């Protein structure tokens, strides 16, 4: 047996170098894969500049018995779980639909079992630029349809007003 190039006369130095190289590659892989988690845990996300905004959402056809599911002070979220903001105002209007009479003329008909609901929300956008206003990765823009989620509701709403402070 050749004891040259062996540590303590028993362990080959080449084997130790290969083991150290494998450990270095494994450590680098773990660092690269878990780096985003470390950023959120250390608070670097909380240092991102935010932009206060006020948005008004239109819920066009809400049943009367479902109106109480949304209250002022409720927090609304996107379908991906990002917080949109807090409900600051609710405005209810009667729901009218177009029906046709016996002569084929359009007639606006009041539907008492439904209402049109305008929901005003104040929140903080994570980005505001010429590309738009973003809450997390979700873009908010006029006439954009969004899914509003809270503990009690899951409604699709349309953005009818948007004001972003710079």
Structure description:
With 166 residues, the protein is an alpha+beta fold. The chain is 18% helix and 51% strand. A six-stranded antiparallel β-sheet has the order 4-5-6-3-11-10, with no helix packed on it. Strands 7-8-9 form a three-stranded antiparallel β-sheet, with no helix packed on it. Strands 1-2 form a two-stranded antiparallel ribbon.
Overall 3D form: elongated
Number of strands: 11
For the report, how would you describe the main beta sheet?
Answer: 6 strands, antiparallel
Strand order within the widest beta sheet: 4-5-6-3-11-10
Helix content: 10-25%
Number of helices: 1
**What is the arithmetic mean of pLDDT?**
83
Strand content: over 45%
| Termini gap | 76 Å
Q: Which regions are unreliable across 5 or more consecutive residues at pLDDT < 50? A: none
Q: What is the structural class?
A: alpha+beta
State Rg.
29 Å
Q: H/E series, N to C?
A: EEHEEEEEEEEE
Secondary structure elements and their pairing?
Layout: E1 6-7, E2 11-12, H1 13-42, E3 51-63, E4 75-77, E5 83-100, E6 106-125, E7 127-129, E8 132-135, E9 138-140, E10 145-149, E11 154-164
Antiparallel strand pairs: 1-2, 3-6, 3-11, 4-5, 5-6, 7-8, 8-9, 10-11
């Amino acid at each position: 047996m050749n004891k040259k190039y062996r540590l303590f006369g028993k362990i080959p130095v080449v084997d130790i170098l290969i083991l150290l190289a494998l450990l270095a590659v494994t450590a680098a892989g773990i660092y690269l894969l878990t780096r985003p988690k470390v950023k959120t845990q250390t608070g670097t996300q909380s240092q991102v500049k935010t932009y206060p905004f006020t948005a008004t959402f239109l819920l066009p056809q809400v049943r009367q018995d479902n109106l109480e599911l949304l209250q002022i002070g409720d927090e609304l979220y996107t379908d991906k779980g990002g917080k949109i903001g807090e409900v600051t105002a609710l405005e209810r209007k009667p729901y009218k639909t177009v029906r046709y009479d016996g002569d084929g003329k359009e007639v606006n008909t009041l539907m008492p079992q439904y209402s049109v609901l305008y929901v005003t929300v104040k929140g903080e956008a994570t980005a505001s630029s010429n590309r738009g206003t973003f809450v997390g990765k979700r873009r908010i823009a006029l006439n954009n349809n969004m899914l509003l989620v809270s503990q009690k509701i899951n409604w699709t709403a349309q953005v009818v007003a948007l004001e972003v402070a710079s």
